[in-house]
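look at this fold:
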Amino acid sequence: MRDFFSISRQQFWIATIVSVCLALIALFYGWMTLNEGENGEGQGNTGADMASGQELQADADPKMSGEAGLQTETVNGAPSEDTSEAGGNDVVSSSSNYMLPVQGEVFRGHSITKLTYFPTLNQYMAHRGIDILAPEGTEVRAAAEGLVSKVLDDKAMGKTVWISHSGEITTVYSNLSEDLAVEEGDTVTKGQVIGTAGNTSLFERSDEPHIHVEVMVKGEPVDPAGYFNY
């Protein structure tokens, strides 16, 4: 009988120890599960906060919302965006090699990234060249010797003549009259008359009489100020 009670006490303590161990293990796994749940919830909130932050940034930054490039729309008569002037591909040539096509005031300058107001369109836009005041009928002369590479009726800028020069430089003359003095393929000298000032540009029709002049290097517009003295 004594041996029986001795065995029973041993079994009781073994069962107790096993029960405590199982309880501790269950408590440990329960704590781990709860901790993982809290971490997952925290990560979910972080992801939502990041998404919300990106949406706010997209609202503030047009580039993130898909808007890029120049803004030409107007808002209550003011430009929707006005960015600083960029250097771009401006290549400065000796201004002594080029002459102003007409003698007059440059009333609208070159502006690629800083938008310029166009009264005809009631809109702000980039301006690839310069506008020089010149009464209709004023003779327009080639800025330098070269080859007449294009003569066209531009839908926006009116009657236009392109002249190619050395160094992959091209001068463009727009808002000319219909009566031109040159044709495509002609070789011209510096100062040769190529036509007269007109009023054929739809984009600049309500401005004072003038001609529009551009300078391009390798097909890209540059600031004519680096080529003309004015």
Q: What stands out?
A: Residues 37-94 have pLDDT under 50 and may be disordered. Residues 1-68 form one domain. The chain has two domains: 1-68, 81-226. The longest strand covers residues 146-154.
